[in-house]
Structures are given as structure tokens and as C-alpha cells.
Amino acid sequence: MDHAAALVEQNDLFADLLGDADLATPVPTCPGWDLTQLMRHVGRGHRWAAAMVEARAVDIIDPRTVAGGKPPADGAVAWLRESPALLLDAVAVDPDAPVWTFTGPRPAHWWVRRRLYEAVVHRVDAALALGTGYTVEPALAADGVSEWLGLLAARPDGTALRDGATLHLHATDGGLGSDGEWTVRGGPGGITWDHGHGKGDTAVRAAAADLLLALLRRLPADDGSLEIVGDDGLWTGWLANTAF
């Protein structure tokens, strides 16, 4: 997948939603935020990642110190549209340069994929707030599930799944192959996961987009789009313990 092109596309779709919207509209899936705050969060996040890549930062940079980190009073949506280019330009200088991330030093291009899924999920947040439809293509959503599991696996935390427990996720979309299945295993120091068909203590089947949104708590744990087989408590416990 071309994560850079997808980032620009998803960010543009997000900006399209905001173009004629009342930016004071509350965002139910981000309690306490309105669309202005959601837009600032995404645009500043892109610019913050760009600043860290450009500086080859070994420690976190305070997002509040990033130049241009607030949208202007006029042209806020244009500011959002311009934000990914700053990151992509910074990464292009040396995509493999190590920089700070939430999961330890990673190649600069790591941030492109991370910011892509920030744009995807917050685009959905905006669509839900505005009561409009949205589509997340299966291959994109499946890659988003993998990216999210990768973040969680890099976190030394044994609370997501009890030691020895297994959670199997299965995307029902056609054509994804092994990329649409994930087996997650709990251990004393955190989780591990891999692709492929298997059985788990709990299995969750749904379209890839619904799996992604459920994992990120944009859908209720018992949403009708999800088929849950096995230990319901393991699934709800997973969701309760995997906020990032």
C-alpha cells in the first residue's frame, strides 16, 4: 500500500467534510471536542510529526511548540489540507532516519502510516458528528487493524489479554486473504500477533472497516455488525484495556 498517497487522500476527504460544516458541531466519539478541535488535532498532529522527522528528534517535541500548529482564523480547512505535505517532504529527505515515536525509535516513514490512520479514524468521527455516510475501503481498513495491533504489541503492557488468552479477528470482505485475519495472544509482558486463520478463546468477525472502528471504540462492543463467538468478556476486556 502507498501510505503516502493514502494519507493525502484521506486527509482531503476529511477536509471535504469540513468545508461547509458548522465547525462548532460537537463530536460524540471524541467527548468534549467540536469539529474545530478535531481539525486542529489532526492538522497539528501532521505538522508535529513533520517537525520531529525534520529535527531527527530523539525525544518527544511538545506539540504546542510546533510552528503553524494552530489553524488560522481564515483558511482553516486549507491549513488542514496543506499539513500532510510537510510530513511527506520531511520524510522524503531520509525515509529510514531513526526518530522518536510512541514505540521507541523508528524509521521516519513510520510516521506516514501512523498519521494516515489518524486521518482515517478522525474522518469517520467527523462523518458521525455530521450524520453523513462514510466508507473505509477493506484493504485500507485491514492495514489499519494491523497498524493498531503493532502499536499495542510494542507497548509493554500485560493487561490487554490475560496470559495465554487468544483473540481471533476475521475480516469478512472478499479478497483480503491472510491480511484479513489476525490472531492475538496474551503474554505476561504484552501481546503478540500474526496473520492467518486460527481459533481463539474469542473470535470477532465483521467487515474490515467495522473491525477497525470497533477496535478503536467507534462502534459499541456489541454492535450488530460484529459476530462474536466465544468469551464475550475477553472481547470487552480487550476494548477496555487498549486505549492508547
TrEMBL record:
Gene Ontology, cellular component aspect: plasma membrane
InterPro entries found in the cross-reference section: DinB/YfiT-like, Maleyloyr_isom, MDMPI_C-term_domain, MDMPI_metal-binding
UniProt-listed Gene3D superfamilies: dinb family like domain
Matches recorded under Pfam families: MDMPI_C, MDMPI_N
Single GO MF annotation: metal ion binding
Residues in Mycothiol-dependent maleylpyruvate isomerase metal-binding domain copies: 6-127
Residue ranges constituting the MDMPI C-terminal domain according to the UniProt record: 140-235
Protein name per the record: Mycothiol-dependent maleylpyruvate isomerase metal-binding domain-containing protein
Organism: Pseudofrankia inefficax (strain DSM 45817 / CECT 9037 / DDB 130130 / EuI1c) (Frankia inefficax)
